[in-house]
Design a protein that fits this description.
By secondary structure, the chain is mostly helical. The protein folds into 3 domains: about 200 residues, no CATH class; about 140 residues, no CATH class; about 25 residues. Helix content is about 55%, strand content about 5%. It has 20 helices and 5 strands. The strands form 2 sheets. Strands 1-3-2 form a 3-stranded mixed sheet. Strands 4-5 form a two-stranded parallel sheet. Strand 2 and strand 3 form a beta hairpin. Helix 4 packs across helix 7, helix 5 packs across helix 7 and helix 16 crosses helix 17. The longest helix is centred in the last third of the chain and has 35 residues. About 30% of the residues are buried.
């Protein structure tokens, strides 16, 4: 027994010794360099597991065999047939182009299962990439009536690619395309387009095509940004462009770290206004005008899922930064209740498509749970400056006065009655005094002759 235990220890020691070369920094850098599509860890999913789960279609390897998503596989095959017939190119050309880039595509998925590796696994991987990629291209083109690649060869009652399908099915496909675990590399789409058009693809055109599909209202400046990693990356970048506001001076954070809500800031004299752009960077505090400008945000049934996946991407992708996370942290600081949401809605900052202000408030409160942030983002400077303004005694008294006397209509009415009674009493007193002096002047004897 002792010999077996000693032998076992020597075995694991030998195995550990053999892997020492993998601990070199340069080797580890290359190990993760290409990764940009990740499985969301359980500690993140626990907050809202549904937010990371595709509902109608699997794209890529992580959800390929999910039973709930298998019905869409036949729709993918039909899309492939339509694209091939219109392109008038053999399927072998598309497969050959993807096979040349197979290793790069595989490296984009962190911890890719072994079933996608080896000779048989590689074939399955190539098939999945071609079928899923062509399906995405067909969906994007079907949803874009101005697309140069007309897809009008589908039946008018097609469940996905008809006008009816675009109206009722495509929104859910669009949502699934923003799930971190359900991403396809834009590099894959570029390869397929290159074969289809027999020309070199334009990175900016592919970004624009994807962004038009994901967000019809986005006005992201796309020039010179390079090809996006995947749809979620392009969508996220469309919301964090442009510079941050630069604030001078020192604005220390209070020890409590507590920020006043939007309603309380408003009572202290601060107004809110919609920013010119929709970028999360475009948040400014102009102290001379007591004005905070913020980007407009449409909040609907899919907003929470999209934001959570962007935050997960920032957590898992080292070079992504934390811009979306910091924006949500800022919003969580000024939104504490339905009244805060109602105030921001009245100023056009939040466009509430849910119809319930409490639901929106809970969204920002819950979405930032367990969020870890680095306090070097410029939005922290705005929070610090607002905190500094709020700590001034005059502003505290103003907010307290407004909160106490104007909290409800009854208090306002009573205050107005009291003021009116005081004014009436003063007017009556003035009138009585004037009458007194007038009567004395009339009764006084005139000068002697």
């Amino acid at each position: 027994m002792g010999d077996g235990s000693s032998s076992s220890k020597r075995a694991w020691v030998r195995d550990a010794q053999k892997t020492l070369s993998a601990a070199v920094g340069s080797v580890e850098v290359s190990q993760w360099q290409g990764n940009c599509i990740y499985r969301v860890p359980a500690f993140i999913k626990d907050l809202n597991a549904k937010a990371y789960q595709p509902q109608v279609v699997s794209l890529g390897p992580f959800h390929h065999d999910d039973k709930e998503l298998l019905p869409m596989e036949e729709q993918k095959r039909r899309a492939l047939r339509h694209l091939l017939r219109r392109a008038r190119k053999p399927l072998e050309e598309f497969v050959a182009a993807i096979e040349e880039a197979a290793e790069q595509l595989e490296s984009m998925y962190l911890n890719l299962d072994d079933r996608w590796r080896g000779v048989e696994g590689r074939e399955r991987f190539l098939e999945m990439m071609v079928v899923d990629g062509c399906f995405v291209l067909e969906v994007i083109r079907a949803a874009d009536p101005t697309s140069a690649n007309n897809v009008g060869d589908y039946a008018p009652n097609d469940p996905v690619f008809s006008q009816h399908g675009v109206l009722y099915m495509v929104p859910y496909i669009r949502r699934d395309m923003l799930m971190l675990e359900n991403q396809l590399p834009l590099f894959l789409l570029a390869k397929l387009i290159a074969v289809e058009t027999a020309s070199a693809p334009n990175d900016g055109a592919i970004n624009s095509m994807m962004l038009r599909f994901l967000s019809a209202t986005s006005n992201m400046p796309l020039a010179g940004v390079g090809l996006g990693l995947h749809p979620l990356d392009v969508y996220r970048r469309s919301m964090i462009y442009g510079p941050y506001q630069t604030l001078g001076g020192s604005h220390d954070v209070p020890e409590t770290g507590i920020m006043w809500s939007a309603v309380k800031l408003n009572k202290a004299g601060i107004r809110f206004k919609k920013s010119i752009t929709n970028s999360f960077h475009d948040i400014q505090f102009r102290q001379s005008h007591l004005l905070v400008s913020m980007p407009a945000l449409v909040v609907d049934d899919f907003t929470e899922y999209t934001l959570l996946n962007m935050v997960a991407f920032e957590r898992l992708h080292v070079s992504a930064g934390n811009d979306v996370s910091v924006y949500l942290f800022f919003m969580n600081n000024i939104i504490r209740s339905a009244d805060d949401v109602a105030l921001l809605c009245s100023n056009g900052i939040i466009q509430n498509a849910t119809g319930n202000d409490r639901v929106v408030a809970d969204l920002f409160i819950n979405i930032t749970k367990n969020m870890v942030l680095v306090p070097s983002n410029p939005l922290y400077a705005i929070l610090r400056q607002l905190n500094t303004y709020c700590r001034k005694p005059l502003n505290i008294y103003r907010a307290t006065f407004a909160d106490y006397y104007f909290r409800n209509p009854a208090t306002v009415a009573n205050s107005m009655v009291a003021v009116m009674a005081l004014i009436a009493t003063l007017m009556q007193t003035v009138y009585t005094v004037l009458q007194y002096f007038q009567s004395n002047t009339t009764a006084a004897p005139g000068p002697s002759a």
